[in-house]
Every structure is written in structure tokens, then in C-alpha cells.
Write a structure and sequence with these properties.
globular, alpha/beta
Length: 408
């Protein structure tokens, strides 16, 4: 693959920066029409914010703040000036965080990522991200259709029906988590179903360690990774160079010292902060809680935008499990539902090639009934299942950590 989605991907970086920062003042004015941004950016002169140094002087909005903001001012926390009905679709993610989808073509900016992964017009794509309430399925669906692909809106699970669709439509592409791709491949191999039409994949939403990458490649599928969020869509993506991820167009990505809004030194690991240039739904310095570092020099694939190493962990305790964010606030909610519990610690690991959770809970009244009740609460609050380990009072460290990610 040597072609690019369009000429914007290969323009001089100085020209890209000039374009982005010439558009930013108008986006800031649109943002400040919303009450929460108007308050946060009080005193800001949008006309003066025409450089990265000037942008770095604006306050950071942390994604971890969004649940409380949205609860206080439903649905969008006062961060959107237009009414909810001015959008195409309305979603929710755990927190809860409420996310709107714009009405423009490719509202989640994902067509470039699919193109870089080898998807082309008229390809058929099996999309296994969830279409239920959360935006994941629609992010990849809209992106594929903007590229000119036909989409099978499969969602996750129900492998037997997935096999029927694959054998009938013969999709060449897959989008979904890497975990579910392995589940499909394993189930097809064990049941003698033919899913050999799938030759390429764009995966996101879960860890894709080298061991799983090698296994998927050995089974005939060329899989690429994309980094995105339910708020912003696709932020960065792998290309055929396989050297980090290229930042998407129409976004300003900064890397800051965790807990601050101050840019890190070149090459240092820091927290990803993104500013989007959609005046209908702008994000101004949204700190995602994800860590990365910038790579020097443009990608060998010819794309000239900033490159990042990819996801390098969390700057806060919020983590992503099987494509869903799990937050400290959710662990606290489980504790409120079970007064007999003391400290709680949610430990995230890998079992084989799949994310797994274990909730460790202090209690002086351990029982199988309590364990089952806590397991039900864990699933209800996080929308994910997990093991429950009951321990005695004082057994967990008094270090303030409620989510520990032990995935390598």
C-alpha cells in the first residue's frame, strides 16, 4: 500500500499547523457560546490563540470530570451550545457520559484509519463493535460507509449468526476488538466454518499485545490498530509503516505532564490532550487520561502529521476493559451498594488473550451469597463481568488505589 487517503495527509507540517491554528479562533468562539466553556475560558481572547504556546495557556478539561459535569447539567454538561436535537444520534457511555454524533459525513473521522489499514471502496466490512447505546458500532460503521464500504452491522457475540453472515456476504474486512476477532477465529476453526474471506482488520478498544498480533497475522489477517474515544472518534492510527500511529487530520494533539496542562519535553511520555475543530461540538484541550510519547520525524509511509507511540497506559486510574472504560467512581458505587464492604480494589489482568477483572473486597462477613451479590453489582455498574475475591479487613493496601491495571 502506497496511496494516501488525500493530499492533506502528505502536506508540509508547517502548512498543516497554519491551517489548524487559523481555524482555532473560530472554534473557540463557538465553544464559548456554551455556558460551561464560557465560564472555563472566561477572559480568553480567541483571536490571540493561534499557536501551540497560546493553546497551552488555556485550561485542561479532564475526561474524568465529564460524568459529574453531565450529571449537574444534563445532557452535555453545558459544553455544547446547540440543542440535542441538532445532532444525528445520541449515545451514552459508562459514567454516565453522554455523547452526540454530528450530521456531517464521517463525523468520527475514521475513514482515513480504515484506508490506512487497506480498506477500499466496495469492500464489505464485518463491524463487531456494539451498536447498543454506546457509539462504538456507529463510529466504525459511519467511517466505513464514508469510505464507500458496505457494512454488516453485526455487533459483538452470537458467533453462529456471525458465521452465517460471513459465509453469505464474504466480507474482506473486520472492525472490532482484537479479543473478539480471536474468538471468531477460534470458534470457526473448531466448528469448521469458513471465514477465510476476512483478510484485513482495524482493531481498537482493547489491548493488542505482540503475541496476539503474531497469532492474527499467522492466521492470514493483516490487522492494524487505531486509537480513539467515544468523545472524539478516531484520534490516531497505524499505517503500513508499522512505526507508531499517525495523528488524524483536523485534531490538535498535545502531550502534557500528567495532572497538568504543561507540554512535555520532546519524546517524553505524557498525557494525551486533544482539541477538535468541529464548531458544532468542539473539544478544547480534552485530557483523555491516556499516556503516549511523540515520535520524531514523519512516518516512512509518507504521511507527515505528528506520530505517537500508541497507547502506553493510563495517567489516572480509569482504564479500558474489553473496549469499555471502568472508572473509580464505579468502584465506589459498588461499595455504596454493599455496606458490609471495606476497601475495594479492581485488578485488571489478561487471561490468555482476553481482558479479565477481579474485584477484591474487604469484609468481615464473607459468604457465597455476598460474593454473588457483588458480582451482580459489578456487572450492573460496569456492564462487564468479573471475578470476586473476598478478603479480610485490612488486607488491601491503604494507598488510595481502587483500580490496578496489571496487563503488560
Amino acid at each position: 500500500m502506497t496511496a494516501h487517503y488525500d493530499a492533506r495527509e502528505t502536506r508540509e507540517q508547517a502548512a498543516r499547523e497554519a491551517d489548524l491554528f487559523s481555524r482555532l479562533p473560530g472554534v473557540l468562539r463557538a465553544a464559548m457560546a456554551a455556558p460551561a466553556y464560557g465560564e472555563r475560558l472566561k477572559g480568553c481572547d480567541p483571536a490571540a490563540v493561534t499557536s501551540r504556546a497560546a493553546l497551552a495557556g488555556l485550561p485542561v478539561l479532564r475526561k474524568s470530570e465529564l460524568p459529574a459535569l453531565h450529571k449537574a447539567s444534563t445532557p452535555f454538561g453545558g459544553l455544547v451550545a446547540g440543542p440535542p436535537g441538532s445532532f444525528a444520534r445520541l449515545f451514552t457511555s459508562p459514567g454516565p457520559i453522554f455523547e452526540p454524533e454530528g450530521r456531517q459525513e464521517d463525523p468520527w473521522r475514521g475513514a482515513r484509519a480504515l484506508f490506512a489499514a487497506g480498506f477500499r471502496p466496495d469492500d464489505i466490512v464485518l463491524n463487531t463493535f456494539s451498536y447498543h447505546l454506546t457509539p462504538g458500532g456507529f463510529i466504525f460503521d459511519a467511517s466505513a460507509r464514508a469510505l464507500g464500504c458496505a457494512v454488516i452491522p453485526a455487533g459483538p457475540g452470537n458467533t453462529e449468526q456471525q458465521f452465517e453472515l460471513i459465509e453469505a456476504y464474504r466480507p474482506v474486512g473486520y472492525s472490532g476488538t482484537p479479543d473478539f476477532l480471536k474468538i471468531l477465529l477460534d470458534a470457526a476453526a473448531s466448528s469448521g466454518r469458513d471465514i477465510s474471506s476476512i483478510k484485513r482488520a482495524l482493531v481498537s478498544g482493547a489491548a493488542f499485545p505482540p503475541s496476539l498480533q503474531a497469532e492474527i497475522k499467522a492466521r492470514g489477517i493483516d490487522a492494524y490498530q487505531a486509537f480513539g474515544t467515544a468523545d472524539l472518534g478516531l484520534i490516531a492510527f497505524e499505517t503500513e509503516a508499522r512505526e507508531g500511529m499517525v495523528v488524524n487530520e483536523d485534531l490538535i494533539l498535545e502531550i502534557v505532564k500528567p495532572g497538568t496542562g504543561d507540554p512535555v519535553a520532546p519524546g517524553d511520555v505524557g498525557e494525551i490532550v486533544v482539541t477538535s475543530l468541529d464548531p458544532h461540538h468542539p473539544w478544547i484541550r480534552l485530557a483523555l487520561g491516556d499516556l503516549t510519547a511523540a515520535l520524531a520525524a514523519p512516518s516512512p509511509c509518507g504521511r507527515t502529521n505528528m506520530r505517537i507511540k500508541g497507547w502506553m497506559g493510563r495517567a489516572d486510574q480509569t482504564t479500558k476493559v474489553k473496549g469499555m472504560f471502568v472508572r473509580p467512581e464505579q468502584v465506589a458505587e459498588i461499595g455504596k451498594r454493599h455496606p458490609a464492604l471495606g476497601r475495594l480494589r479492581l485488578v485488571v489482568t489478561r487471561q490468555g488473550e482476553t481482558d479479565a477483572m477481579t474485584l477484591k473486597a474487604e469484609t468481615a462477613a464473607a459468604s457465597d451469597v455476598l460474593r454473588e451479590e457483588i458480582a451482580a453489582s459489578l456487572r450492573a455498574v460496569t456492564k462487564l463481568g468479573g471475578a470476586i475475591e473476598l478478603v479480610g479487613p485490612g488486607a488491601l493496601p491503604n494507598d488510595g488505589k481502587v483500580i490496578v491495571d496489571e496487563r503488560s
